[in-house]
Amino acid sequence: MSVNTQDKHATAREPVAGSPPGGRPGRGASPRGRGPRWTWRTAQSVKGASLTFPFLAGFTLFVLVPVGMALRESVYATKSTGGLGFGGQTVSFVGLDNFAAGLADGNFWAGMLRVFLYALVVVPVTQVLSLAMALLLDAARRRTAAGFRIALLLPYMVPGIVATMVWIFQYSPTVGPLTPFFEALGLDLNFFSSSMVWVSMGNLAVWGALGFTMLILYGSLQSVPHEIFEAARLDGASELRIAWSIKVPFVRGSLVLTSLLSIIGTLQLFDQPLLFRAVTPETITRDFTPAMMIYDQAFKVGNLNYATALSVILAVVVGVASAIIYRFTNREDS
Amino acid sequence: MIRTRARWATAGLAVTALTSLSACSAGDAPATGSEGDAAGPATIEVWGWNAETGKQIAEAFNEAQDDVTVEYVLQASNTATQTNFQNAMEAGSGVPCLVQGFAPLTTMVVNGWAQDISEQVEASADLYNEGALAAAQVDGRYFGLPSGSDGQFYIVNQKTFDKYDVEVPATWDEFVEAGRELKKHGVDVTNLAGEDPSILMNLAQQAGAEWFAIDGDQWVVNFTDEHTLAAADVIQPLIDEDLVSNQTYMDKPALLEYFDSGKMASTTTQWWSLTGYQTGFPDSAGDWSAHPIPQFSDAAEPVTPGRTLPSFVPEGCENPEAAVAFSDWLTTPEAIEAGRNKETGAVGFPVQIPDASPYVEEVVPKDFFVDDKVAGEEIVAAQERVIGKFELGPNYDAWFPELQDQWGKAVAGEITLAEALEAVQAFVVSDLDAKGISYTVAE
Predict the structure, then answer these.
(1) What are phi and psi of B348, to 5 degrees?
(2) Per residue in A274-295, pLDDT tens?
(3) Which one of A276, B116, B284, B417 has the fewest CB atoms closer than 10 angstroms to its CB?
(4) How far is residue B138 from each of residues B310, B412, B426, measured CA to CA in Å?
(5) Cross-chain residue pair B248–A278, CB shorter than 8 Å
(6) What whole-number distance in Å separates Cα of residue B418 and Cα of residue B233?
(7) ipTM value
(8) What angle do helix axes A197-222 and A252-267 make, rounded to 10 degrees?
(9) What's B125's DSSP letter?
(10) Please, what sign has the CA dihedral across residues B421, B427, B430, B436?
(11) What are the counts of helices (DSSP H) followed by strands (DSSP E) for chain A?
(12) Which residues of B touch A279 (CB under 8 A)?
C-alpha cells in the first residue's frame, strides 16, 4: 500500500508540459532527474499488481458490470404501448420510483420480517451446534476427528435443491421414516403442516450449514497454542473450563465471520421455501421471502426493473445488518 | 481500515449475490431464421426438448421430401428452450423457425415472439381437429401451429366403487354425491393437490367460462362469471365436507402409494399419464376403468376440458411456409410411424389430427384397465370433444402463481373458492394496470 502511494506521488510530480507521453528515453536512468517515471521499484509494483489482473478482470466482468447494469435497470420502467399488449413495450426513465415503491411494499417487508425472525433462531442454533461439534472434535483424537470432519461436511456438499428434496421425502407423513419414528416416541408430528414448516426448513438449514461452520471453527481451534492448555491444566482447570474460558474466546473472530455468512445466507432464503411451497401452499406464498419475491417479480410477473430495485434494497439491508453485527461484536472484543 | 474494507467487502458480496439474481433481460429484436435460396431446399431450425424422437422425426421428414431441410436442435428442457430462445431474440441472430411451445400462446404474442401465420395455416386447416385449430389462435388469427390438446377423461377404481356399491358419476353433481357415499367408508373421491389449481381451470373451461376475452382494443377480464362459479360450486363442497385428500405432487412416492391403495377412488386424467400409472400402481393395476369426464348437468353437449401450449413460428423467421409444411407433415401416418420410440416401441398419440383412433391401442397400457377396448374408446372420444382453447390473457405468468396461492388457501379451507377467484381477479387487474395493458372487468 505504501509503495503504491509513493509511486502515485512520483507520477503526480512527473508530468511536464509538452513532454511526450512516456518521457524521453534514458530519462528514468538519470539519478539526477526530477523523479524517474519508470524505476525498478515501479516496475516491480506493476509486476506485482499484474498478478491481480485475472481476479480484477473476473471481478469487473462478473461483479462490477452486472451491478452497474442492475442499477441502471432499476431506474427504468417497462410498460406496454397500450391496447391488448400486442404492440410492444416502451421503456421510460422513472428515477427512484421503483425504490420508493419497494420501500413502501408491505409484502416485501413482511417477507423481510419473516426471514429476520427465522434468522434470529436459525443463526444462533447453527453457531452453537457447530461450536459444540468443533470443540468435541478438538477434544477427540486426531484420526477420529478426521473421520467425523468429513462425515459432518457431507451435507454441505449436497446442493440446496437436492438436500431439500431429500428432506421432503424424509418428512413425508405417508412414506417418510420420521413420522413413524416420532410416533414411536409418542409425538404426532406432521412436518408438512403449516405450523411445522419453519421447523422443517430450519432443521434442513442447520443440517446443511453445520459442517461448513464447524470446519472453520475447528480450523481456528487448531491455531490456539497448546502451551496455554497445558498451563491451564497445571492450574487445575477442567476440560470444560478450558473450552469455555480459553478456546471459545480464541475462536470469537471466526464465530463473527461464520455468523455473518450465516446471516447473509439466511436473509436470502430462497430454494427451501420454493420447494416447500408445494407442500404447504397456503402458508408459503409467492412472496414469502424477499428473494422469492424478487424471483417472482423478475421471472413471473416480468417486472425486471422493480425486481432489480428490490434486489438492491435487499443488498443494502443485508449489508447494513452485517455492518451492525460486525461493529457490535468488534466493540465487545475491545 | 481493515474493518472498513471488510465492511465494504461484505456489502459488495451481498450486492453481487442479489443483483446477479435478476441480471437478465428479455427483448424482442427479430432476426432471420432460415437459410436457403430459390434453387435449393430451405433449411430451418426446429427447437424442442423431445430427446427421444425429435431428431429421428426430422430425419424422416428430410428424407420424405426435397423442399425443406429441418435441423432439430435438442433443448435440455422447457425452461432451457425459453432461456435460449429469449437470448437468440435478444441477440437478433440464430432465431429458429419453429419452437415447441414453452408458454401460453398469448404470452408469445404479447412478447412479440410469435408471428401471424394465418395465411399458411388456413391453407391446410383440414388436416387438424377443431380443438387443435382453436388452440392455435389469438384474437381470431393463427399465431401458433395447430397443436392438439390432451382431452381429459375420468378413471375410477372400479373395485372400490363396486365394493361400496357406488355408481360411477356422469355429472359433477353426481360426482359430489359419490364423494359423500365413499366418505362413509373412509375413501376419498379424488385428490386436490394444494399447489395445483388445474382442476379448477379445467372445470371452468368445461363450464364455458372465459377468464379473458378480447373486445376490440381491450381485454375483458372475468374470473367470477356464472360458469366459473359453477365450477367452484363443484369443488367447494368437496373441500368443506372433507371428501378429498390433499396430497402434494412434490412427494410423489406418497402420492402414488395413496392412489394405489384404493383409498382414492377416482381422478381425471389424460393419455400421457397412463404409462406412469401402470408402473406406479402395482397393486391396483387391473382395477381401473375409463369413463367420460363428468359433465355439468345443464351442458348442451358433452365437452372435454384440455389445453395446450402450441408450437409457434418466431418473428424473424423468413420462411414460415417451411415451418408449416413440417407441421403439416407431422399429421401423416408416415410421420407418426417415424416418431415410434425405438426403446419402448410406442408412438406418440397424434392429438392434433381429426381421427386418432388408429393409434389409441398403442397408448392404452397393458393390464391396467378392466377393459382396454372401452378405455381406448374413451381416450378417442375425449380427443374428439376437447375444447382446446382457454384464453389465459396477456399476463398468465404473472397471475398463475397468484391462482396457486389463492387455491392453496382455499383447499386448506382458509378462504372460499369464490373469495380466491375474486382475489386473483384483483391481482390480474392491478398487474394489467402496472403493465399498461387496456382492460375492462366484466359486469
Answers:
(1) -75, 140
(2) 889 988 888 999 999 999 999 9
(3) B116
(4) 11, 35, 24
(5) yes
(6) 9
(7) 0.80
(8) 150
(9) G
(10) negative
(11) 17, 2
(12) 248, 250-251
